[in-house]
Amino acid sequence: MLTSPPVPDIAHMVQMAVAPVFLLTGVGAILSVLTTRLSRVIDRGRQLDQWVREGHDPAEYAHELGKLDKRNILINSAITLATLSAFFVCSVILVIFATQVFIDQTIFSDSIATLFILAMLCLIGALILFLGEIWVANTIRYFGHALPPHR
Fold first, then answer.
1. Cα–Cα distance between 133 and 70 in angstroms, integer?
2. pTM of the entire structure?
3. Cα–Cα distance measured from residue 5 to residue 141, given in angstroms and rounded to the nearest whole number
4. Which structural domain range is residue 99 located in?
5. What is the 3-state secondary structure (H, E, C) of 83-133?
6. Is 75 helix (H, G, I), strand (E, B) or coil?
7. What per-residue confidence (pLDDT) applies to 6?
8. 20 within some domain
9. Whole-Å CA distances, 86 to 19, 38, 80
10. How far is the C-alpha of 85 from the C-alpha of 110, rounded, in Å?
11. Dihedral over Cα of 96, 99, 105, 110: its sign
């Protein structure tokens, strides 16, 4: 039969889980930025597609469409890694609580470290991809000169 840990132990568990929760909040904010950028890429691609369907020369937009495709791949990859990072952070929190409540905590200390390392590696990868996407976005210049004339 499982016995509940004493209140001071539960308070200590909550304190240990606070740092990963703040990290999870930060990863969530990064995911929000990434999804916003992805929606802008999709909207721009749809806009270019509409212009081509209206009769504009597709060759005018080939370069930009290629860049948008590259941005799409980078952002989706960054979203995947950031989501994995959030998953690993959640796993760290889960293991922290589970080891305190159900199991001797020394057994899973390596698991906590491994999950945290995986979370950080995924987050670093997501940020590198995000930076790459920003660089690609900066190579696309459409400040009015690439827009078709208004009708």
1. 8
2. 0.81
3. 60
4. 7-138
5. HHHHHHHHHHHHHHHHHHHCCCCCCCHHHHHHHHHHHHHHHHHHHHHHHHH
6. helix
7. 67
8. yes
9. 13, 19, 10
10. 18
11. negative
How many domains does the structure of the chain reveal? 1
- What's at 54, amino acid-wise? E
Q: Is residue 121 part of a domain?
A: yes
CA-wise closest residue to 98 among 112, 119, 83, 84: 112
Six token digits for residue 142:
């459409």
Q: Is residue 63 part of a domain?
A: yes
Q: Would 81 be classed as within a structural domain?
A: yes
Which 3 state secondary structure label does DSSP give 151?
coil
Backbone angles phi, psi at 124, to 5 degrees: -60, -45
The two structure tokens encoding residue 96: 């922290």
User: Sign of dihedral through CA atoms 18, 23, 25, 26?
Assistant: positive
**Model confidence pLDDT, tens digit, residues 71-125:** 999 999 999 999 999 999 999 988 888 777 776 666 677 888 899 999 999 999 9
pLDDT of res. 103 = 66
Q: Is the pLDDT of residue 1 over 80?
A: no
